[in-house]
Amino acid sequence: MSLIELPNRKVIYSNQNLFSEGDLSSIYSSIENSLFAFSEVYDNNKKVFSPEERKSLSYRLDSLPSQITDTIMAEVSKLSPDPYLKIIDWQIIKYPTGGYFKLHQDKSEQPNINNPKVSNRCFTFVVLLNNDFEGGKLVLHAELNQGSNYCVGLSLCKNRGDLIIFSSELFHEVQKITKGTRLTLVGWIGIN
Ligand SMILES: O=C(O)CCC(=O)C(=O)O
Ligand SMILES: [Fe+2]
């Protein structure tokens, strides 16, 4: 378990090996019947398909197993005592070989007028669902000191079942997958 506290109340928290095989297979089985779409990005508050920015598939799940959401929220409560925080959105993301997600924020300083769910984001969580791929590092670019000193290359989500939670304003990227397919459960915690 590790907690990195950054300026402006931003945090990066990780807990390795949090999810059991049973937990992970409950997620896998929910993917089987769900629809996938080519992943989109926000450009000026509008959702657009932009393969230069992002190459992956997103699976829209209606719900998550309660053992998964309970475990995630128990971890969130270690970061913030706010009783109104909850999981407001989630998806499974699949990155085939050659897939990536370039440097971005999940919430920017400007409010997203088209999708208030985005502006309501406080934390992003990522659960790594598999290990049998190469490349595909989730890298957080943590600003340590008023824009001048960046700690680049912080890679904390490495093994199947690892959970990472970070402030949604932090810049991050998923580097190119060079072999195999990378699968993650990604979601956002906020106040609705
Ligand atoms: O797949 C990941 O590890 C992160 C995905 C991501 O950054 C996002 O969906 O905003
Ligand atoms: Fe992201």
TrEMBL record:
Required co-factors: L-ascorbate
Pfam families: 2OG-FeII_Oxy_3
Presence of the UniProt keyword Oxidoreductase in the record: yes
Tagged with keyword Oxidoreductase: yes
Annotated GO MF terms: dioxygenase activity; iron ion binding; L-ascorbic acid binding; oxidoreductase activity, acting on paired donors, with incorporation or reduction of molecular oxygen
SMART domains in alphabetical order: P4Hc (SM00702)
Entry protein name: Fe(II)-dependent oxygenase superfamily protein
Superkingdom of source: Bacteria
Domain Fe2OG dioxygenase: 80-191
Entry-linked SUPFAM superfamilies: Clavaminate synthase-like (SSF51197)
Keyword annotations: Dioxygenase, Iron, Metal-binding, Oxidoreductase, Vitamin C
